[in-house]
Fold this protein.
Amino acid sequence: MWPIKQFLFLLLAVMVRDSVAQSVVSFPAPDTVLSDVKHKEPKSGVQLGAANTLTIQSGVGTPTTINVLAFSKDSKLLAAGKDFGRVVVWDLPSRKVLCAVDTGQGIVHAVALSADGQLMATGGDGDRFSLKLWHLPDGKLVRTYNYFNGYVRTAAFGPAGTWIVVSDNAAVTHVLDVTVDKQLAELKDMHSPVLSPQGDILMTVSKANFTLWSTSDWTQKRTLPRSPTYAIPLALNPEADSFVITSSGIFRLLRLSTGEPLPHAPNPELPKFNGAAGGFAAFGTSNAVFGHSDDRLWAWNTSNAQTCVSDLMYSESGSLSQDGTILAGAKDNSILAQTRSGEGVWIWNTSKLAAKCFSAKK
């Protein structure tokens, strides 16, 4: 039970975040909202009861919560991993639900779609920390992988769809063969894997280094000192000789060849990143980086440092299509939300978004 005093404290914190956000350029309204399908799901584990008492049941999620979003390579499919093991897949051109899969994996933390859109990988904190492979659009289970000592945090298919990179909560990065139940590589004490846009380079982080791997044979290419000490890689762009990191909640751009900081740090600073809550960053087009942190989506123009931030989304899930043209973010009407708006997934065309965000004067 949370008494009214703690509840009011949380509400005040939300109000403070709202006031801080007013000093930065704000996102325009989304171009499209994808509505979630309604299912017979368990009652929410977060309830506001009599006398404004907030009750939170440990280990119980909320049916509307979307924890992770993932596009197919051609940007035609978008998958959303939810609490209670549910994954919803939309067909973006028609804006209709393609299928809904009950994974049996508890709170779904990881979702990935293959390049051809025929396979979907999912992982959660239930079902013995498994990774499951599903066929689309029928949602039939293809294979279950059980190589993990902690829940699956992230998953990403290779460009040809023959392998998938998976990280678990035990700081191990696995590479799995998609055609059979086989592990191609196990990178111990290597976590937070990030694939290059072409899928030919993988970056991981260890206690002391960023490590670059060749995905053709999973051999180590080279390392960079992990600086700052607790930096986590989020996005990799070899063509621009750069990568995005977060450290102590802030975002910075580093040179991939040397690891040195690049100019134009975000100004104003972006919402702070919390690894436990989730979030992402990805390179778009025209020197823009898009991401999600502290319940907000954002855009960052790395050529002049300008930033643009959305209203509170009350979720930490977002994704950028692989061609950089579509930004998606989950919108949840939190119990603490002061206003109500359409739940589901909000969609922006990044060209129009950047034009409105970065043309505005501060």
